[in-house]
Structure formats: structure tokens, C-alpha cells
Design brief:
heterodimer, A: alpha/beta, Rossmann fold, 2 domains, seven-stranded mixed beta sheet, 9 helices, about 35% helix, globular, B: mainly alpha, Non-ribosomal Peptide Synthetase Peptidyl Carrier Protein, Chain A, 4 helices, about 60% helix
Chain lengths: ~280, ~90
């Protein structure tokens, strides 16, 4: 919360791989602190390592969420930047990406020579960057955004924040935020005196982060994956009714879908979800 | 628009921070960096929104990053408030 003399590292090793063992790289697009992967690192098989590639440490990306949601960069440029943070690969490795990080992970594999490609590419509740799944900004209605925001707020505070669905149906932002505030206070995720203008600031910053990712995805035209894809979908995904989140056209070498407990955010920390995810990062 | 002085802004910030942390106002230093307080990014943004409502003008989300103590932020708010009142 202050200008830093030393910029935070993009590549953050949460567990180093033992010689001859696999490293899992996870592309993290922010929203939650990178420390959320500590549990996943601990859930990996003995000897395997986990390194987070934190987009929150890339200024052109991170600052866009604080300044209106327009990033002066592209998916391709971000992918190139992240590739520069991969270590030389003496052994097999896995590349994964959570949420928008999955879009980046696919772009990275498309930009690297075949001999550097990962053994596995795992998408953690990521929405495919295909035309059918791209949305103009104004298609993101308050009802949808507020439902996601409640999920996010709950994950940040370690509580389940579930507004009355009837209160969000067809709502405007202000009335919907009031319903989220009521639910958050009832769940003890926020103090009882938390003012609506304060929650609105948090919501606007959250939405700017989503819009940034939406706007980066809009002009991006991905190539199909050069290797099989594994998609882990949260039970309470951002798009719960969709079985593949749009990845099938980008998976000519196959798409495996697994469902894990939790929502889009808590899937990264719930032990029962990590029990599903960790083996998928390792198995061939 | 009423001008907010640096002292008023300091008092407001210290009262709000003390309340969120559940401590007495005398325990919140005006010199301490916000990220050294037990105040996470969620609470910091909520505080920023509440402050905007009190001030009647918008603060950039980066304001707390560039003015990272109560003392520095209060000085910035006073300066900004005076400029807006004079405009």
C-alpha cells in the first residue's frame, strides 16, 4: 500500500522442486493474493515444486485495475513477458492458469518452441477466449457482476457471502450492492457499520479488474492448443451451466473436464478442491 | 464545498482506522504506513470509498499508495480540498 522501492517478483516460488521432480507454474491474474496458492503447493506430491507467475507484479496489467480498467498491453505481450520468467526446463513441467490466467497460459504455449512446451496445460475455471464467449462490456449486467462480487468478497474474508437471489434479479448496482452488504454483514464478512459508499469503492475496483481482462481478451485471437487441455471447473463456476466454458474448439488434441468443490475463488484454497486439482497437475 | 483541513482529515482517518482495528484512537500513529496496520486491501478500499463520501469528491484508487500514511494522506486531502473549494 505504498510505492515500492523494489518491484515485487513476477515469478514467486512457493515450493522448489527436488532434483528430477516437476515444477508446476500457475499464471495468476490477481483479485486474490498470490499467497492463496500456498495450500496447493503443499498438496502437490512430495518433491514437486510450485511457482506462481503473478500478473499482479506486471505494472501495465496491475495498475489498470486501479485506473479505470484499461491496460496498455496485450495478451500476446503479457504472454511473452511471462515466458521470460520460466526457468530453463531440465525436466517435465506443468503450466496452469486460473481464471484469465488460463487465457495467458494458452497464449504462452502458442508462443514457445515445441521443445519448451509443458507436459500438461491445466485451466482452472478459466473461460475460453473464443468469439462465442467474448462479451462486450455492457453485456456484463449488475446482477451477474454482483453475484461474482459476493463470491469474491466471501473468498477474501473467509466467509460465505450469499445474497438473497431475489434481491439481485434484475437489480441496479446500488440496490444490489445493498443486498450484498446485508449478506456480508450477516455472514460477518464485513463490520456491521460498513457504509455502502465504502463497499461501492471495493466493487468498482473489482469490476475494473474484470473489465481490464475482458478488454484484453476482446482483440485476442488464440490459436488452438498444441497439446491436450485439462479444465478444472468449480461447482460454482462463473458460468455454472456451461460444461466446458467454451474450450472445446481450442482443444484439437483433447479436452478433459473435472469438477471440483467450491466456487471460482474458493476452489484455490478449499482442501477438498485441492484434493481434486493437485493430482491433475501431476498425472500424465 | 467546505474545506477540510489536514487536522480534520487526520482525526477522521484515525477514528475510522481505530474503529476498524478495534483499538483506541491513541494507538493509531499518524506516521505509520497503512500496510503496517492490520488493515487488508479490502478494508483499505472500503475506507477510501467512505472517505470519498465524506469529502464529496473522488479519490484515485492509487491515492493510498502514493500517500501511504495518515499524515501524508491528510496533507494531500487538505490540499486537494482547498484547490477544489477555490476552483
Amino acid at each position: 500500500m505504498r510505492p515500492r522501492d523494489v518491484p515485487p517478483p513476477v515469478a514467486r516460488a512457493f515450493r522448489a522442486a527436488a532434483p528430477g521432480h516437476r515444477t508446476v507454474y500457475v499464471v495468476h491474474p490477481g483479485a486474490l493474493a498470490a499467497q492463496v496458492y500456498r495450500g496447493l503447493a503443499d498438496a502437490l506430491p512430495e518433491g514437486d515444486g510450485l511457482t506462481v507467475l503473478d500478473l499482479g507484479a506486471v505494472p501495465a496489467y496491475a495498475e489498470a485495475a486501479l485506473t479505470g480498467g484499461r491496460a496498455a498491453t496485450t495478451v500476446e505481450a503479457l504472454a511473452q513477458e511471462l515466458l521470460g520468467h520460466l526457468e530453463p526446463m531440465p525436466t517435465a513441467y506443468t503450466l496452469a492458469g486460473w481464471s484469465f490466467g488460463g487465457v495467458l497460459a494458452l497464449a504462452m504455449t502458442g508462443a514457445m518452441p515445441a521443445e519448451r512446451r509443458p507436459e500438461r496445460l491445466v485451466l482452472l475455471d478459466s473461460i475460453a477466449p473464443t468469439e462465442e464467449y467474448k462479451q462486450p462490456d455492457d453485456a456484463l449486467e449488475p446482477e451477474l457482476l454482483l453475484g461474482w462480487f459476493a463470491m469474491y468478497l466471501g473468498a477474501k474474508r473467509g466467509r460465505s457471502v450469499v445474497p438473497d437471489p431475489g434481491a439481485l434479479a434484475g437489480c441496479g448496482t446500488d440496490e444490489g450492492l445493498a443486498a450484498v452488504l446485508d449478506a456480508a454483514v450477516a455472514a460477518r464478512a464485513l463490520l456491521p457499520e460498513t457504509p455502502l459508499p465504502g463497499l461501492r469503492k471495493l466493487y468498482e475496483t473489482y469490476v475494473d479488474g474484470l473489465l481490464r481482462n475482458n478488454r484484453l481478451t476482446a482483440p485476442h485471437h488464440p490459436s488452438p492448443a498444441a497439446l491436450p487441455l485439462v479444465l478444472v471447473k468449480a461447482e460454482r463456476s462463473l458460468v455454472p451451466g456451461d460444461p466446458t466454458l467454451g474450450w472445446q474448439p481450442l482443444a484439437p488434441h483433447g479436452l478433459t473436464v473435472q469438477v471440483c468443490p467450491g466456487d471460482h475463488y474458493t476452489m484455490l484454497s478449499r482442501p477438498d478442491s485441492l484434493d481434486v486439482i493437485a493430482p491433475l497437475l501431476h498425472a500424465v | 464545498m467546505a474545506v477540510v483541513t489536514a487536522r480534520e482529515a487526520e482525526d477522521w482517518l484515525i477514528e475510522k482506522i481505530a474503529h476498524r482495528l478495534g483499538v483506541a484512537t491513541g494507538e493509531v500513529s499518524r506516521e505509520v504506513y497503512f500496510d503496517e496496520l492490520d488493515l487488508d486491501s479490502t478494508e483499505a478500499l472500503i475506507l477510501a470509498g467512505e472517505m470519498e463520501n465524506w469529502l464529496g469528491f473522488e479519490l484515485s484508487t492509487t491515492t493510498l499508495w502514493y500517500h501511504p500514511t495518515v499524515k501524508e494522506l491528510a496533507a494531500y486531502i487538505a490540499e486537494e480540498s482547498a484547490q477544489r473549494a477555490a476552483a
